[in-house]
Write a structure and sequence with these properties.
Blueprint (H helix, E strand, L loop, with lengths): L1 E2 L2 E2 L21 H19 L101 E9 L2 E12 L2 E9 L6 E10 L2 E9 L7 E6 L4 E4 L5 E3 L5 E2 L3 H11 L9 E7 L5 E16 L2 E11 L6 E9 L5 E10 L4 E6 L2
Parallel strand pairs: 11-12
Antiparallel strand pairs: 1-2, 3-4, 3-17, 4-5, 5-6, 6-7, 7-8, 8-9, 9-10, 12-13, 13-14, 14-15, 15-16, 16-17
């Protein structure tokens, strides 16, 4: 059939080819079943989740997570690279131990001064860094102490000349020995030794040095504690039996010789522990040189016994002494020199 220029053909369509549309207001049973399955699945998922504060019940609003805490973490410093010593680095010297017998000066005490010629007096002291001689202390000797006396001497030091007096007093309370020497200028020498008299001869208790107008220095002999202490340096020295000071040895040595004169022939040795007033102490070893005559201004003294002590270290005292057998072997002459380079102090009896 042709209408308006277009050709139309009729086809018969049966109503069974298309399903009928559902009536409004009615639900098909399949949709209801699908919705139920979906709701049930959601319920199962919520029920199987983790218990805790985030969910108290189905559909509850989850709790907020805890606040974050920010901490500053300092990074560890990398270890420094090992330091490799250079091949030219100076070797480290091991510190030398101080011997047990070496006196130790007090803190702040400077190095000792080199002694001059005045250090050659009978009480002359070397530097405080004296080291006690090795070995056992000297043995005690029998002694015969001279009675009280007063001896005068001509005193000479270098080119200077003067006079001196050696005075010894003794009694039940002990002894006192003094030496007073005068030289031109500030050359006065004043030494005093006080102590007791015992089986070993003189036992000094205090030795005082007032040389050249300087401050006094003293050595204190503590026999109960067997030690010697000093008023100047804080040094402690041992105190063996028979120990003397730098003045008392001028009487102790004659007392040893006078106790047994026949024993002291050439080559015999007398050892005496001697301490000064400035922290020094050492063993003085006297060797008998033999018999000699001494020429004095007042005349000749025959048959004196000469003993000599050689220095044991630098700036130590060389001592030569001539003992008069006619006067309890008291010194008729004494010569002391600090070596090397020190002036000689010479004492010669003037009467």
């Amino acid at each position: 059939m042709t209408v308006g220029g277009l050709r139309w053909q009729y086809c018969e369509v049966h109503a069974a080819a298309f399903p009928a549309a559902p009536r409004p207001g009615r639900r098909r049973p399949e949709w209801a079943l699908a919705i139920g399955v979906v709701v049930g699945a959601h319920a199962l998922l919520l029920a199987g989740g983790p218990a805790g504060p985030q969910r108290d019940r189905v559909g509850a609003r989850p709790a907020l997570p805890p606040a974050l805490t920010v901490r500053k973490i300092a990074a560890a410093r990398p270890a420094p690279d090992p330091v490799v010593a250079s091949a030219r680095a100076a070797p480290i010297r091991a510190r030398q131990p101080v011997p047990a017998h070496r006196p130790v000066p007090a803190a702040g005490q400077g190095p000792p001064e080199r002694p001059d010629g005045a250090a050659s007096a009978p009480g002359a002291d070397p530097p405080p860094a004296t080291v006690l001689s090795e070995g056992a202390p000297p043995p005690p000797y029998p002694t015969r102490i001279a009675p009280p006396f007063r001896l005068r001497y001509d005193l000479k030091r270098g080119a200077q000349t003067g006079t001196a007096e050696l005075r010894f007093e003794s009694g039940p309370n002990g002894y006192e020995l003094s030496f007073d020497g005068s030289l031109p200028g500030p050359g006065a020498i004043g030494l005093v030794s006080r102590g007791a008299l015992g089986a070993d001869g003189l036992a000094p208790e205090r030795f005082v040095d007032r040389r050249r107008g300087r401050d006094r220095h003293a050595a204190n002999f503590d026999r109960a504690a067997a030690r010697i202490t000093y008023s100047g340096p804080q040094v402690i020295q041992p105190l063996p039996p028979g120990a003397q000071d730098r003045l008392s040895w001028l009487v102790q040595l004659p007392a040893v010789v006078d106790a047994d004169p026949a024993r002291w022939i050439a080559g015999a040795r007398v050892s005496i522990f001697v301490s000064g007033a400035r922290g020094d102490a050492d063993v003085w070893n006297f060797v008998v040189q033999g018999r000699e005559s001494v020429e004095l201004t007042s005349g000749q003294v025959p048959d004196t016994l000469r003993l000599a002590r050689a220095p044991s270290r630098p700036f130590d005292t060389q001592a030569d002494v001539w003992l008069d057998p006619a006067r309890h072997h008291l010194p008729v002459r004494a010569r002391l020199t600090t070596l090397p380079g020190g002036e000689t102090l010479d004492l010669q009896r003037s009467e």
